[in-house]
Please model this.
Amino acid sequence: MGGCAVFIILVLAIWIWFMIYKHLGHDPLVEGYCAYFDCSFPEHYRINWFGEVWQYSWIWIPILIIIVVQVRKNRKILKDYIRNHWVKISFCMVSIGALTGLYFGLNPIVREALQIRETYAFAQDAMRDENYINALDYFSEVKTYKDSKKQIEGIHIKVSEIVVQRVKERKIYGDTEQYLDILAGIPQYKEEAHRLKNKVKKMKKEDEDKEKAKLKQTVPYEGMHEDSISLSAWGPPTEIYKDINYNSLRTDRQVKHYKWIERDSSGRIIKIKTLMVKNQFVWGEVEVHNYYQN
Model:
């Protein structure tokens, strides 16, 4: 029974220690964020000065308890010792205070220096992977560190070469527009970037027109995106209706029904075409039913 009680007390003590560490030893990464959104620990928090001290409390709390107990037991001896050696004790106390202050003063500076080195390393990794957008972001965070400014200038030159080549080969999708946005913000590349942007915009319009012309010749098929249906050979549908209780169903069970009704000059239905849409894509085979014929 005694062993069980000790175990429960130990678990309770650990839980209390962790709650103090979690709630008093950390601050939200973004002030006020956790008041409106769900925050996860430790992803959305950073440790504060109290947390820095408290994480080592399993060392200093027992030592503090031992010191207090020994002081109470040897109070008279301690008083005599302090009276005879007050100069040394004062010097030690001042030294401890100064070292503690130095630690908390230097700690943020050391952390910042390590963060800068880490960011620079990330930038170099991104350069090796030819991920110039990420590399530029990282180098921009540490502009004054080592050769970051030179690296940024080199990225601008490389990106301008890549963009010119891509436009020449009509490889205008992917991160080409991001590259152009970067160059547009740099004085020496601004004019050329705007010229290339207009050229890319024109090329995309041509590609869009070609795609629309191709869609106009294409009969809807299983897997076609919902946005392309009205642009297909069938044109806009005559009507669209949803399953009963559509809005109360799970997304993967929501089905829309598209219907095209064709009539002759007398108003008689001669053909009905139908298809179903689930998760924004044509689901199943399209159907065509012929009716009245002369």
